[in-house]
Write a structure and sequence with these properties.
The structure is a single chain. The protein starts with 18 loop residues before the first helix and ends in a 6-residue tail after the last helix. Helix content is 62%, strand content 8%. It is mainly alpha-helical and 160 residues long. It is built from seven helices and three strands, in the order αααβααββαα.
């Protein structure tokens, strides 16, 4: 009895047939999301931010005095996880918490001057990224993609 000979991996392999995968919407969306996410992460990392930090700063800037519950819903983040993000941004003096006048348990969130300045710089970088992506797609395709993504975000699929 002879044992199977080892496979020679030094030979160049033909490219993988991805046809079945590339016909799947979920696969293609995931691939695109991973690529765009890497670019987005690089943009915000240059400001020592994580994507959730950036999103939270944008929401607080647009909604001064908002609270953690509303941010959890908007970002789809659990309260304990968002509390960690908020604490990190407060420690960096980008965000400040103000107790509610009527309900002292409520914490209202506001950007500090440093938070506004950092957000302005980060948003400028993100806008450059967005412009490059929109340019790559073209105006019509960009608009169609945004509408399609909005539709997909509302889809509910029932699996048996």
């Amino acid at each position: 009895m002879s044992s199977p000979s080892p496979v020679d991996t030094s030979e160049s392999l033909d490219p993988l047939d991805l046809t079945r995968l590339t016909q799947l919407l979920g696969f293609r969306l995931t691939r695109a999301e991973l690529r765009i996410r890497r670019i987005f992460v690089e943009c915000v990392q240059s400001f020592d931010l994580k994507p959730v930090d950036f999103s939270l700063l944008v929401l607080v800037d647009a909604n001064p005095g908002t609270n953690q519950r509303l941010l959890c819903e908007a970002l789809d983040v659990s309260p304990p996880n968002l509390a960690i993000v908020i604490a990190r941004l407060v420690k960096r003096r980008l965000l400040r918490q103000v107790r509610g006048r009527q309900d002292r348990r409520m914490q209202h969130l506001h950007l500090t001057a440093a938070g506004k300045a950092l957000l302005e710089q980060a948003e400028g970088r993100i806008q450059q990224m967005e412009a490059a992506l929109a340019n790559a797609l073209g105006k019509t395709q960009s608009g169609l993609l945004l509408r399609a993504l909005d539709l997909l975000a509302r889809v509910e699929v029932e699996l048996n």
